[in-house]
Amino acid sequence: MSVDFREVEKKWQKEWEEKGVFHAEPAESSEKPKFFITIPYPYLNGNLHAGHTRTFTIGDAVARYKRMLGYNVLFPMGFHVTGTPIIGLAELIAKRDERTIDVYTKFHDVHLDELLQLTTPEKVVEYFAREALSALKGIGYSIDWRRVFTTTDEAYQRFIEWQYWKLKEKNLIVKGSHPVRYCPHDANPVEDHDLLMGEEATIVDYTIIKFYFESKDGRIIFPCATLRPETVFGVTNIWLKPTRYVLAKVDDEVWFVSREAYEKLTFTDKKVELLREVDADQFIGKYVTNPVTGNNVPILPAEFVDTDNATGVVMSVPAHAPYDYVAIEELKKDDKTLEKYGIGEIVQNLRPIVLIKIEDEDYEVPAKDIVEEMEIKSQKEVEQLEKATKTIYKKEFHKGVLLEITGDYAGIKVSQIKERLQQDLIRNGIGDIFYEFSEKPVVCRCGTKCVVKVVKDQWFLNYSNPEWKGKVLEWLDEMAIIPEYYKEEFRNKIEWLKDKACARRKGLGTRIPWDREWLIESLSDSTIYMAYYIIAKYVNSGVVKAENLTKELLDYVLLGIGNPEEAAGKSGVDVKTAEEMRKDFLYWYPVDLRSSGKDLVANHLLFFLFHHIAIFPKELWPRAIAVNGFVSLEGKKMSKSKGPLLTMKRAVEEFGADVTRLYILHASEYDSDADWRRKDVEGLAANLRRFYNLAKDYYLKDVQQPDQLDRWLMSRLQRAIKETRDAMEKLQTRRAVNAAFFEMMNDVRWYLRRGGKNLAIIFDDWLKLLAPFAPHICEEIWHWKHDSFISLESYPEYDETKVDEVAEVSEEYVRMLLEDMKEILKFAGDVEAVYIAIAEDWKREVVRVAREAGDVRKAMKIIMSDERFRGMAKEVSSFVKRIFKERFEGFDSVNEEEVINSALDFFERELGIKVKIDPEKVPVEKRRAAMPGKPAIYAV
RNA sequence: GCGGGGGUUGCCGAGCCAGGAAAAGGCGCAGGGCUUAAGACCCUGUCCCGAAGGGGUCCGCGGGUUCAAAUCCCGCCCCCCGCACCA
User: Fold this and answer.
1) Which ranges of A616-677 would DSSP assign to H, the alpha helix?
2) What stretches of A38-111 show up as alpha helix (H) in DSSP?
3) What is the rounded distance in angstroms from the CA atom of residue A718 to the CA atom of residue A712?
4) How far apart are the first and last CA of chain A?
5) Nearest 5°: phi and psi at A233?
6) How many H-runs (helices) and E-runs (strands) does chain A carry?
7) For A503-516, b where at least 16 C-beta lie within 10 A, e where not — what string?
């Protein structure tokens, strides 16, 4: 009958909980260093899944490992519910949205009747928090549950308010506007998973250059939108599509834009008012002024103009834009149009104006040259034109330099001009920005076309602040990032990070304390909450209430500002509590390791660093960050919102906690993704059962005096200990499990096959070695013999004195000899016996000398100076050559005869044939081939 | 496009930084043992050739360095992830 993993697991989880095994309190003795490890709390808009399982299990393995190393480990957990998705989910459930119901019943394993109850955010939070808690307990993480909290807890909100006041005081929060993807129908920003189409689209900022036309009613702005503002110096004309446009009042100006552009402008921070519709025709042939150069350029018609892109007003730069060049050439031949607008002469006289020199290329007029080369004839050849545009832009961007014609900008690289020019234009009142999607259409799940909305007066975290950024970059150098090559990634991301809007109109969370219209956005409220775990213990035990968490108390506890008496007095807690909290905080902080999925690198983990550095003194900044990859299911990407998904609970129910843990730890390393494959998981379960059976068969046996084979096993165990410890120091759980479990299993198998009986000799250490990875089964087996918790035992030390090189080499010798004999028997046909002849002693000596000598000639010289070898020069010489040719490694320390004799039973058992050392029976020519460590074998 | 990572034997995945094994381990597959049978368990094989422990060809593609390259150098092709205000 085989072991029921689940039963064993539940038993020990209960024990651990009842005995408070993982409750962490500051240690009195300084001999026990502390280790504070945190994992990002999960967001509760669904059940915990295999992705969480991976990140959390890595964290738990480290926590358990460190604990066994003698660290005082604090491993806490909380729940994240801030933001909009939970509200969205509650609404969808309330609306009985089919897709949502399908996904949540099928993939999140929520019972339909329960799911249908979850119609408010509060119910959603309550349900999934309960589920998460039981999932996390069911897998047996060594979490100190006295510190759990939810981010909507009142006390947590106090803590967040305190943090935001601090940031405000330090002037790290500023006001501004920013563009978001927005659905006019839902009147809400749209997230990726709310999109029907256009997930790939990004928001790009077109530069608007305000060409103008003086009419009798005043100035009309023709806002040309471009991604390449530097080409304003090469404008020969502007393009309109011959269709209806509108005149609109934009702030204090009158703009000529497409109807679509007008609609879009209404979502920006500008004051917009529609004046009237106008025909583009009535302006064609007229001249507008280029505000940058002062030149007057004509307005011309072009079909390629897309009125649904940016303003619908386009400046024409035929020297550098293939579209423009082709359009002009086409127009030149289009007599009907020329005549219609009376623009024949104007058009014929247009000449491209070159303003960029491309180094190492001999373009004269780039757009012209490439269009001719590609033989593009019409502006309708969109595909070709796109390609031409890309090619030219790529070259100009990387290798282009602005020419004298650009005045002050001459000599600047194209790659460095855009932002500068855009700002200059805006400053001079002749430029602006128009946000547009990079791809279209972008459609919301409700079917409405999305727009870019500019949110006004938004609160921003001032991450672009050079001083702040500089400090973060400096600290990055000092702290540890695992794997190490992610440091570069972090550096890049920190440099790239811009100001981040930290306030929202909608969602769960904490209000900005000085502007209660706004809620603190969810990534912005989870930056230094690891500090809150220390406070949460007091809140959960009832000693401290939310209203006690005043500025004074938090200032004192977290920053040491003021004194306990004052802090206590104003907050209403007693002095002792204030002091204790401060002591706890200083004991546990800083965070020693934050271990997280790689999806959080470009956001949460950055904010985590930024905020710690802003708020706390240097000695409390995070010490290390580790990053791990995702989990896929049978090769398919998991998705919370679409499936497939494997919940943590289901994995544990089906396979058991230990199997799930071992599998996920072993499936891959670092940031590479793990694949959950049922077959492999089942294979692992079989291995773990095998382990359990070994324990049953051997663990309780009396330990015998070790013989050579036992010493081999102990020696192998030492290697495994070393390897496992080394791997864990680098957070390589895959390597660690490989060494501690799989490789040990193989060694044990060999040991038993060789006739070993004394397996109990390593079992205690083996159990301890495995305990961080498969804690339940180890705890179970351990208790067959001990009363203590293996979870609190000390981790096996690598003991060099137990490394037995001779035993290991001898075993290797046996293995190779067996292999050779098998190889021979494969071809030998029917034989009755195998005879072995060990290499003569002189060969051993020659090998030694040869290896010292280093090359053939030197070796021969030394050897031949010994008269014993003179008589057999030929044989010696060919042997020496062979040593070098085969890069021969002898088995110097092996007493071959002894080893073979002691393994004869084993050989005979394995081969089913008689095996004997008997040089007499081995033909001379075979004997001659024998090498030290590789005896002659003869089968007859 | 920018930035980061990567392409290894049927699959997954080590090895690459510190050149020197047909290349760990797992899975799959095949054969054998055990068993009344199934399962579990144990063993063996799994690039090609080979009736004596051997030989040959291999690590995205093409060059190069070296006595020796999956590992170092150069060029090329392909794949994955991030580029945000979303958890």
Assistant:
1) 648-655, 657-667
2) 50-68, 85-94, 98-106
3) 10
4) 46
5) -75, -10
6) 36, 32
7) bbeebbbbbbbeee
Determine contact, residues A424/A215, Cβ cutoff 8 Å: no
* CA–CA–CA angle A933, A936, A939 (5° rounding): 135
Place of tokens 């006390």: A155
Spell out the SS3 assignment of A865-905: CCHHHHCCHHHHHHHHHHHHHCCCCCCCCCCHHHHHHHHHH
Nucleotide at minimal C1' distance from the A483 CA:
B5
Sign of CA dihedral A518, A520, A523, A524: positive
* 8 Å CB contact between A48 and A647: yes
pLDDT tens-digit profile of A350-389?
999 999 887 766 778 888 988 888 788 888 887 778 778 8
Q: How many angstroms is C1' of B13 away from CA of A667? A: 8
- Strands (DSSP E) found in A284-413: 287-289, 296-301, 314-316, 356-358, 400-402
* C-beta of residue A508 within 8 angstroms of C-beta of residue A133: no
**Predicted confidence band of residue A888 (pLDDT cuts 50, 70, 90):** low
Which pLDDT value is given to residue A854?
66
- Give the residue among A599, A593, A597, A416 at the shortest CA–CA distance from A493: A599
Q: Is the pLDDT of residue A890 over 70?
A: no
**Is residue A887 packed enough to be buried (19+ CB in 10 Å), middle (13-18) or exposed (0-12)?**
exposed
Nearest residue, CA→C1' of B26: A680
Q: For residues A902 and A801, is the Cβ–Cβ distance under 8 A? A: no
CA–C1' gap, A821 and B49, in angstroms = 20
Determine the residue type at A489. Answer: E
CB atoms within 10 A of CB A325: 29
- What nucleotides of chain B have any atom within 7 angstroms of a protein Cβ? 1-6, 12-14, 20, 24-28, 40-45, 50-53, 81-87
Nucleotide nearest to A86 (CA to C1'): B87
Q: Integer distance in angstroms from CA A95 to C1' B40? A: 51
- Return the number of other C-beta atoms located less than 10 Å from residue A555's C-beta: 19
Chain centroid offset of residue A438 CA: 26
Please identify which residue in the block is written with the tokens 């006001």.
A175
Tell me phi and psi for residue A275, to 5 degrees. -95, -60
Report CA-CA distances (Å) from A673 to A597, A638, A665, A735, A785. Answer: 10, 11, 11, 15, 39
Q: Helix, strand or coil for residue A499?
A: coil
pLDDT-based confidence at A417, cuts 50/70/90?
A: confident
Residue A1 has pLDDT above 60, yes or no: no
- Whether the bond between A706 and the residue before it is cis, its omega within 30 degrees of 0, is no
Q: Which residues pair with A520 in a beta bridge?
A: A503
Give the pTM: 0.87
Asked if residue A254 lies in contact with residue A218, where contact means CB atoms within 8 angstroms, the answer is yes
Nearest to A43 by CA among A143, A142, A152, A189: A152
DSSP classification of residue A557: I
The b/e string for A617-648 (b: 16+ C-beta within 10 A; e otherwise) is eeebbbebbbbbbbbbbeeeebebbebbbbbb
- Token pair belonging to A851: 């290896």
Per the listing, tokens 């939070």 go with A125
> Smallest Cα–Cα separation from A762: which of A800, A714, A795, A802?
A714
Of the candidates A65, A64, A41, the residue with the CA atom closest to the CA atom of residue A52:
A41
- CA–CA dist A940, A915 (Å, integer): 11
pLDDT tops 50 at residue A94? yes
Q: Which residue's entry shows tokens 């029976």? A: A921
Please name the nucleotide lying closest to A44, CA to C1'.
B87
The nucleotide closest to A691 (CA, C1' atoms)? B41
